[in-house]
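Structure, all two chains, one model.
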Amino acid sequence: MSIDLKTIKHISKLSRISVDEKKAEKLAGDLNSIFDFIEKLNELKTDNVEPLTSVAETTLKLRSDEVKSKNLRDQVIKNSPKKNEDYFVVPKVIE
Amino acid sequence: MSDITKQSLSELVENIKSKKLSSNEVTKAFVERSEKSKELNAYITEDYANVLNKAKKFDEKPNLDLKLPGIPMAVKDLFCTRDLRTTAGSKILNNFVPTYESTVTQNIWNEGAILMGKLNCDEFAMGSSNETSFFGNVQNPIDKNLVPGGSSGGSSSAVAAQLTPITIGTDTGGSIRQPASFTGTVGLKPTYGSCSRYGIVAFASSLDQAGPMAQNVKDCALLQEVISTYDEKDSTSIDFKRNEYSKELTKDIKGKKIGIPKEYRVDGMPKEIEDLWKKGIEYAKDCGAEIIDISLPHTNYALPTYYIVAPAEASSNLARYDGVKYGFRAEGENLIDMYEKTRSEGFGAEVQRRIMIGTYVLSSGYYDAYYLKAQKVRKLIKNDFDEAYKKVDAILTPSTPSSAFKIGEKTNDPVSMYLNDIFTVPVNLAGLPGISIPAGHDAKGYPLGLQIIGKAFDEQNILNIAYAMEEKINFKNNITDWWVK
């Protein structure tokens, strides 16, 4: 299989990572060699195999629905690159 | 004592407990050596003033009942440390100062250790050579221009060079064991669910585990005992009875059955690795273990499986870096443009590559062909181990298919870089514990490691086997202090 530039542009859109032509070409080359390597899995028949989603064979523990940490607003907002009082600031999204 | 930094963690603890050394003396020695070792580039963030202060405070009212009394320690920069910058080796977190502490590091401070600084690593732990770090290459103290392994490369370099008595790394596909093997140190990747992932910058959540990196097996057991706790803040943390690993450590492994998987004899494996493995088998026999040939038939499919599962989880985990809540932001014409520029400028090439792979294998139309397929093969790989463990107590393999390579040698070929993890990745996919111990040198004098893989939650057993073999191997690291200024 081959991943073309159009696919790279599509994935970059989904990934929210901008790529220019030069970077797209490099990525296409890299991804193709990686996917050639991944294709090896097709040698295996897996029709009747259950997918493994977690190696930990335990059920999730339940806990009571209690608030344990309070008043974290300042901590939550502390590392924001752009803020205004208690809010995160982003480019305008509503005209 | 001028040779403080040459002492093992266990010796330092003993000397502080018996008041032969103070925390201040020990801390000063490691800070001084770290300051003279800048050329290694093992640290991303140094916190020397703070650690010296805290050591003095510790000495004023020393609590000598603790397991790590007044011990200075630097940790991989993937663990969130309250009020000290945590970068994950990335530009996108260059200015991130956590307001909370990871559970694993909190456990360490609770036992009396003091944070000395944050150690370099591959960006978001994605790499096998520490070359993807935004903060530059780390040098292997064994030889200039040699990679220290990765992703925990700053950690392996710092322990081998004795800049810190011990440290912690994280291991998603070999990131503790491979760098330990490259630097002649000991590294343990615990069972999935043994150490809390709370406060560790996430890479691939179904594979990530924190673990100790040390100069010897006993130190490794002591730190594992401290960091492994059940934690309700991590929903995949497992509530099982944990041993006091260092106290229960024994060299008596008579009658233990150790499996040798034939599939690990990979094509093109250097003779030196093959010889090392044979020597390892002899050492294990000398310790009284019984050697049994086993088969792990799906070994060859582990790396392709890993390169679907890990990027898929990474693409999802790294979606949070959007330039809004924390970290680096690039200005854009609108919100989407801001996201795209932030992520394009903030992430390095390898991270972007993996996000793209992950996004692709999870995208509509490809999910079944790749992600679901990989999850099924992952099941087959785990079944192989389950089957093998009906016959044996542990498995012995080489840690890596080669010794440390040169900086720049593999950077242009991602697949050849990925092949480094061929012996370590299956262990993460199956969620098992694995330990790498130094076992010999190649012709160039570079260290080589052996890996002992255990049953889930059986850390004590692989620590014991490692402890017994360590004595027989009697490994000596060839370190000349060439970098010390």
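DSSP finds 15 helices and eleven strands in chain B.
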